[in-house]
Every structure is written in structure tokens, then in C-alpha cells.
From TrEMBL:
SMART domains assigned to the protein according to its UniProt record, in alphabetical order: HTH_XRE
Every HTH cro/C1-type domain range: 47-94
Natural source organism: Streptomyces fuscichromogenes
Family annotation (InterPro entries): Cro/C1-type_HTH (IPR001387), Lambda_DNA-bd_dom_sf (IPR010982), MLTR_LBD (IPR041413)
Top-rank taxon, per record: Bacteria
Protein name: Transcriptional regulator
Alphabetical list of PANTHER family matching this protein: BLL4672 PROTEIN, BLL4672 PROTEIN-RELATED
Entries under SUPFAM superfamilies matching the protein: lambda repressor-like DNA-binding domains
């Protein structure tokens, strides 16, 4: 729906998404986690019961039930924060709960400009990717489409270059490419982070271009994705260390940062690093070589300009 001021709002019931998140998080908190007695007999409800959570948050059972069923769409900030505390939410989860509550109050997704976010990577960012070499780096969209990469940034994700350009999505890769499960030393942690980013986006902007199709594809093709999607985890990873079992470069670990760009594009810069003079740095140099047609990558797709290499 387009407004007079040029913004759009989804017609989707934001209250339903808020209720879905509350149910998912309630199921993951046990009475013991919040100091309540487990009680006698078999509990049919995983996690907390509605009345238990309502009591902990200081709201009536009827009010909380309406929240979960999407019938109450304007909880106050104090109620939202009380629910977050009762559910033991960490900061990313609490932030998502607040976002969902704001969406519910509006009657749908966050308002956004009627122009879809661009998939074009600005020339300055493309140049930056090249100047970061030999550090592997790539740019991704909100839905984790690969938009641009320097040579190491693509070669690090072994086998991704075998796919057509339009299919190169990081979430699709980690779930569906046969190499990915072996490549990542902690594959379960990797896929959890990927699903968390999509789940968070789907909660506040379900109409994001390409999101629904990607989620439907992965739900149909990957039982692991379907399992994690139902958990409704929204805690992504912005930095840390990843261990790789690479078919060309062997086993090694690199530090990384995933940085959100300002300006509303939703694009992220993902870059890996290692100390000069270490075996890990030598691996980056090994991966940082010009891609050829045999690698399934034409120079234009990397979006990088040729120039002197900068050693980090």
C-alpha cells in the first residue's frame, strides 16, 4: 500500500508476527530458568505456560493471550520490556521484540521508501574490496545475495563460483552447496547465524525483495533450515573467528567482521583478516589470486578495479 508521502507499508498483520515470536521464545524458557517450581505431573506445554509468563511480566493472562494471538497490537514500551525480561532475551532479541511491537502498532512491516533498495555496489566500495587484498572480503544484500567480492572473498567460499551469478546467495550456499558442510569447522553455528539474519528481516520487513522466494526454496530443500526457522532465533554474528577446511588451502582459522552499511541499502561488508607473517596470512595470499573463467567468475562480477595490492 502506497501512502501520499511516497512510503509503503505491508498489509500483513504485524500482530501475528509478534505473537509468533513470543510463542517461540516462551517455548525455550523453562520454569527453572526463571525460578519457578516445575510442579508435579507431565507438562504438556514446552517451556513456560502463558499464565506463568503473564505473571512474570506483570500483565493479565487475557492480555498476554491476545498478544500471542495477534489481537492486541499496541503493547506499551514498558510491557514489551517486561516481556523481554521475563523471557530472558538478550539485546539482539529484545531489539527485535521492540521492532515487532512497533510493526504491530503500525499494522504491518516497517515503513520504507517505495524504491526498492539497490543491489548496485558503489564504485568506492568496490575499490575498497580490492584495496583490502589479500584479506578476503565481499558485499552482500539484506537477503545475503553476493553482490561483489575480491578474488579471495569468492574463493574462500569454495565452490560458490560454480553457481550462476544470480544463484549466489550465502544462505543458499551454506545449506545447499555440498562443499559448505565440510568447509565450515562449525557448520551448525554458521547456519544458525544465517537463519537468524533472514528471520530478523522477515519479522519486520516480510515484503523485502527476494526474501519470500528464498525462504520457500530453503524450507522445501533443507530440513536443517526448516528446523532452525521454527526456532525463531534472531541472534546473528557480527565478528569472531571461523575455522575452514578448504579443499585448496587446507585447514585454517580467520578472524572476521560483518559490518552493516549506513544509508538504508541494507548491504553488509564481510571481511576476514589474519596477522602478517602467520600461516593464516599466507593462506589469504594463496586464495588471493585473479579469478579466471575456469573458476566460473568473470572479472566484471567481482566489481573490483585492478590496482596495487595493499597488504594488511
Amino acid at each position: 500500500m502506497t501512502r501520499e508521502d511516497g512510503t509503503e507499508r505491508s498489509d500483513r498483520n504485524g500482530g501475528r508476527e509478534l505473537g509468533t515470536f513470543l510463542r517461540a521464545r516462551r517455548a525455550r524458557v523453562t520454569p527453572g530458568d526463571v525460578g519457578l517450581p516445575a510442579g508435579s505431573g507431565l507438562r504438556r506445554t514446552p517451556g513456560l505456560r502463558r499464565e506463568e509468563l503473564a505473571t512474570l511480566a506483570g500483565v493479565s493472562i487475557d492480555y498476554y493471550t491476545r498478544l500471542e494471538r495477534g489481537r492486541e497490537t499496541n503493547p506499551s514500551p514498558s510491557v514489551v520490556d517486561a516481556l523481554g525480561a521475563a523471557l530472558l532475551l538478550e539485546e539482539p532479541e529484545l531489539r527485535h521484540l521492540r521492532d515487532l511491537a512497533a510493526c504491530a502498532a503500525r499494522g504491518g512491516a516497517f515503513e520504507r521508501s517505495s524504491a526498492a533498495p539497490t543491489r548496485t555496489v558503489e564504485p568506492g566500495l568496490q575499490l575498497l574490496l580490492d584495496r583490502m587484498r589479500p584479506c578476503p572480503a565481499h558485499m552482500v544484500s539484506r537477503t545475503m545475495e553476493l553482490l561483489a567480492a575480491n578474488p579471495g572473498g569468492l574463493r574462500l567460499l569454495a565452490g560458490l563460483a560454480d553457481w550462476p551469478e544470480g544463484q549466489r546467495n550465502i544462505v543458499r550456499y551454506v545449506f545447499l552447496h555440498p562443499t559448505a558442510r565440510v568447509l565450515f569447522g562449525d557448520w551448525e553455528n554458521q547456519i544458525r547465524g544465517c537463519v537468524a539474519r533472514l528471520r530478523s528481516l522477515a519479522g519486520v520487513e516480510p515484503d523485502a525483495p527476494g526474501l519470500a522466494g528464498l525462504v520457500e526454496e530453503l524450507l522445501a530443500k533443507s530440513p536443517d533450515f526448516a528446523r532452525l526457522w521454527e526456532l525463531y532465533d534472531v541472534k546473528g554474528h557480527s565478528h569472531g573467528t571461523k575455522t575452514f577446511h578448504h579443499p585448496e588451502a587446507g585447514t585454517f582459522s580467520l578472524g572476521y567482521y560483518s559490518l552493516q552499511l549506513e544509508g538504508g541499502s541494507g548491504q553488509r561488508l564481510v571481511a576476514y583478516h589474519a596477522e602478517p607473517g602467520t600461516p593464516e596470512y599466507d593462506v589469504m595470499v594463496q586464495l588471493d589470486r585473479e579469478l579466471t573463467e575456469a573458476d566460473g567468475q568473470a572479472p566484471a562480477t567481482t566489481g573490483t578495479q585492478r590496482g596495487p595490492r595493499a597488504r594488511a
